[in-house]
Structures are given as C-alpha cells and as structure tokens.
Amino acid sequence: MKKFVHVVGAIIENDAQQILCAQRSKTMTLPNLWEFPGGKIEKGETAEQALTREIAEELQCQIIVGQKVEDTTYEYETFIVRLETYKASIVQGVPVATEHAELRWLARHELQQIEWAAADIPAVRKLQR
Length: 129
Ligand SMILES: Nc1nc2c([nH]c(=O)n2[C@H]2C[C@H](O)[C@@H](COP(=O)(O)OP(=O)(O)OP(=O)(O)O)O2)c(=O)[nH]1
What we know:
- This is 8-oxo-dGTP diphosphatase.
- Its EC number is 3.6.1.55.
- The chain has 129 residues and is an alpha+beta fold.
- The protein has one domain (3-128): Nucleoside Triphosphate Pyrophosphohydrolase (Alpha-Beta Complex).
- The protein is built from two helices and seven strands, in the order E-E-E-E-H-E-E-E-H.
- It has a four-stranded mixed β-sheet with strand order 4-1-6-5, with helices on both faces.
- A hairpin with a 3-residue loop joins strand 5 (62-75) and strand 6 (79-92).
C-alpha cells in the first residue's frame, strides 16, 4: 500500500500581492518542483499549528494562518498526499531558504511560469481565477 501523508502548505502573500513560491531541492522527493512552503502535520497538531511550526523551521519567520484555500488529495507514483493550503501572512522576519533550492515571489498571473508539484495545481488554479 502507498504511504499516505497529510501536508499543510502556506499561501503567503506580500503587500505587493505576490505569492511566495518555494522550489524543492534536487535531493528532496519531487525534486526541483515548486510548492507552497509547509510540511507534514504531526500527531496531536492542528493544521494551523503544523503550518506555523513548519514555516518557522523552514523559512525562519513567524506567520499567522488565515482562510483555507484548497484541500486536495493526489496520488503520486510512490505515495498519496492530502494537501491543505491556507492563506498566511508574515508577522515577523524575512523568509530564508533553509531547505529549499530557491524562494520566489510571483504575482498570481505569473504562477504558471514555474513547474508545480501536481498536488498544488488546484490551489494554483484557484489563485489565478
Ligand atoms: N510542503 C509541501 N509539500 C508538498 C506540497 N505539494 C506536495 O505534493 N508536497 C509533498 C512533498 C512531500 O513529499 C510532502 C511534504 O513533506 P515535507 O515537507 O515534510 O517534505 P520532505 O521532503 O521533508 O519529506 P519527504 O517527502 O522527503 O518525506 O508533500 C506543497 O505544496 N508543500
């Protein structure tokens, strides 16, 4: 049976209405694909707690979590992911790529310029409507 992971991703928008996109490194699963920063929900955590923790670890900044945007389950070749995405705003710090290959701020109409992880496509489409 395929491994199942429950993941939260942050859709962080800045004052210029750009969204923070994060490129997975070449050594991670789904290498070089772009995603919303975040990660797996650990036992006993709410989605909001997991997202706040992951962003502090990965980007070294503090966020407040807002509205849910999308909830998608996608079956990759080797695992199944349930990705919940939430709007979020940075309340302290400037994002630093401690794990990602690159961070990029893109306007909504520019989001299709990069190659997203498949599970992210419904959320990306919603942002472009
Ligand atoms: N953080 C994040 N992960 C995503 C997104 N879309 C998507 O398919 N994923 C996948 C990639 C990972 O396999 C998993 C998230 O786990 P993680 O953030 O702990 O990633 P990881 O590389 O440290 O873990 P792993 O896959 O090596 O076990 O969900 C997304 O938008 N954000």
